[in-house]
Amino acid sequence: MVRFLLARPIAVFMTFLALMVFSFIVLRTLPISLLPPIDVPQIVVKVSYPNASPEAIEQNVLNPIREGLITLNGLEEMDSKAGSEVGTIRLTFDYSTQMELAYIDVNEKIDRLTNSLPEDLARPEVIRINTSDIPVARVQVVPKEGVSEVEVSLLAENVLKKRIEQLPGVSLVDINGKKERIITVQPDEQALAALGMTQQNVISAIQSGNSDLPGISVKDGQFRYFLRLATRVDTPADIESLPVAAASGAIISLGKLASVKYETQENLGYHLFGTQESLVITVHKQASAKMNELIPALKEALELFKVDYPQVDFELTQDQSNLLNAAISNLETSLLFGGMFAFAVLFLFMKDYRLPLIIGLSLPSSLLISFLVFYFFNLSINIISLSGLALGIGMLIDNAIIVLDNITRKRESGLGLFDACVEGVNEVMGALISSVLTTLAVFVPLVFLSGISGALFFDQAVAVTAILSVSLAVAFILLPMLYFLLFSRSKKAYDNQEGRIFSKVLDLYEVGYRSVTQNRNLSFVLFLVLIPLGIGISLLLKSEGLPEIEKLDATLEVDWSEPISAAENRDRVVSLLNTLQGSYTQAEADVGVRQFLLFDGENSIQQALLYFLFPTVEEKVSAIAEMEAFLKDNYPEASFTLGDAPNAFDQLFSSSLPYYEVRWKDLEGKEAIPEEKMDPWLSQFPTQQWERGPGLQKEASVVFTLRADKMATYQIPVDAVQDQINKLFGSYTITDIKRFGEITPIRLKEPNSRFEDLLRTTRVSASDSVSYILGEFVEHDYEDHYKYVTADKGGIYQSLNVTSEDPDELASEYIRWGQEKNLGVTMVGQYFKDKENIQQLIGILLISVLLLYFILAAQFESFIQPLIVVFTLPLGIGGAFLVLWICGASLNVMSAIGLVVMLGIMVNDAILKIDTINRLRADFVESDIISAGEALEMALHKAGQIRLKPILMTSITTILALIPIVFSSGLGADLQRPLVFSVIGGLTIGTLTSLYFVPLAYWFTVSKKSLKSS
Q1: pTM of the model
Q2: Do 116 and 208 fall into the same domain?
Q3: Residue 61: what pLDDT?
């Protein structure tokens, strides 16, 4: 095939050129994202039920919904959590579930359940989780001094949101911190009492004045007009002019009986930018959009906003494109330095400028054509797929060097240019195909990992497969064609002398080779001892998901663990921000209940999330210590979490599951076990290293008890007392003003007095129109009760989070503890998920090794020789672990990718070396001039000399291309540094050992057989 194609170099060249042009066109259409658009198999159902207790929400809302959703296809887990006024149900599906259909199914079932839910309950929200739900940036909208916050909220909702949504690539715009305008009515109790009137007279007058006649029309001859009542109100002045009839028959304007005015509705949550109340707009991108085009367009839009809306300040924060830009920058750096160093190394070793030029043309062409595969597999350019391309670049250079070196060697042996190109490619074709297949055999099975890891590996596996497959086509077709074209015009005779530098390297190799062959037994034992020692270094390395990145931002999640209002929560956060004033360059906070449509977390008035950006790491460390001290000294009851601000990776891999949770259900009843019974039981729990789960957390509350005996004595209706309590303490809406889609509620103004004072001063009317003090019929008491009611598929449960180092050690004791108390105990958590993932990973890696062995056995037609390749890998892994340990790095995702890169190159070198030994040995044996034993010795020695140059060139070019990252700074360098350490360590130590280990192991596997035959 190579001979046929080389005979038509112009046709081959034009074909590759056409492919590259088409690839360039395709590249411009590929979406650019931070992460691949993975459907996380989770759906969250959120319920908002004002003035309802956790028990009421669980019994009346969440329980019926859970029962209705339990038959969903592919449903694996279902957990619910009921708190004061809010409730959530988290549905987790199998990864094979089609989430579009599951989302539709959940919505249909919710619609069917509507009739069985409370009438005053708003429809539950159904939120589908996707990686594109992670916002790419946040826009801070800060009102200037004197500007109405309500007006800014209307501007953000009606103008800014729509203008940002019109930007190409934007899928959703979400807002938090909006303020709404309401009309408040504050009755004058003394004036009402003097006229023998009550609040109800004022309420009835407003409701009558705002009534409408929907669907009624009047006929006027041939015309028909829809009827509208002229008494409808629009403004506080309209309400104040409404007439109110007194018991005496006198008509009084409402303005004399109550104060009516516009006010800002009391919020359940706030957003702060710095210490100032503001709004935040989160921007989400479409899956097919390019982030590197969206963010500049967003920044340009913000500059226009600053001109168009001078009453507001704008700021862009938490730009997630920085990670993607860092990855792209690293790939560009690798290509640039890889090309430069490849040129330098090839020139030093081969002394011909045309060879580096060929590689310089092959690298970008391979990379560009790889994007065609992206297009056909609907992949985006993201951090995962880019790391896959980076994985393949090392082997791409490796293949190019091997082919060029082999063609050059054929020319040195006296073959003509055309025959040298053909024979040079054909000779290494089988070995190169095997090396690519073995790399894919190690890597591609990782796609079958369950969970998000397997979904992410899909993009990486396709990227690796694409670039390695293209690199083979380039190495077998484009490289020999370019070599033929460039060298065919040369009139200069071919210089087959080695470069001076390589000659010295070859002399050093010969010294080492003689030492190893003279002490084969000792050398082999030393290599065998190095394998467990190198692998053992892994025990000294710490393990983590992602490498530690030097971040200048941090977050503080705080739960005040007290029944405070949202305003008090805001004031505490502002106090904390003022304490840290000057140490941070940027700060924002989401306080209390968040208004985001896509927020799937826990919405609580008592919680706050703060984000800080610091100028230096030192300032960050100092500020974190200051925050801890402030919270512990001033709010000892508060629970808080301080740490680095999560990036998109952290948010994607974060789990809502606790690490190790012991759950139990009461086998007799279907309710949570009461505190007075539960607390003594907890003191008998098998370990004291635990924290209360959500179902055991307590909060203080006020309990009202109606005195039925007194109400009966004074003939006070129960409805009258409940209605009066609702008007005093609830958010009592009289009516709504609806104009062109805008709704303005008219509400009774809530008194600011303590509830005990209100009970003593408020009166309630009896059936005989005599009024009495409300406090006479209501008793109140303070008590602690469970803050949340938690449940799963099987019903209500309570739980503890075990915090010991080996949480599963006492599993049988936990079950025995539950049996003694008639409790059904189960253990769940991330601990079991991690254990399952590790078992899957071990199984997949075993399959990978078997595939690798089968491929090599077919290549070498031997059952023993593949083991030589397998045993070279631990030497490289040991070298990688050693450098990671010396440099203080950890075992993480990036260092694991580095190991795969390094192993791919090492496997390649070992396969080619064994293939060359087999070929030379066969040639020497067929000559019948020397014995089989001598043929073996000569083949081992000659193969070492032949393969020394490509092995060293591959390792040196890869190492030198990566070294600049070690000395770089910034987010991208921090992310890639463990990968670099793995590759440099593995190739430096692994290459040196494999140069001598492969011939040594080969000799031990065939020497006895050779001696017998001789």
Answers
A1: 0.72
A2: no
A3: 92
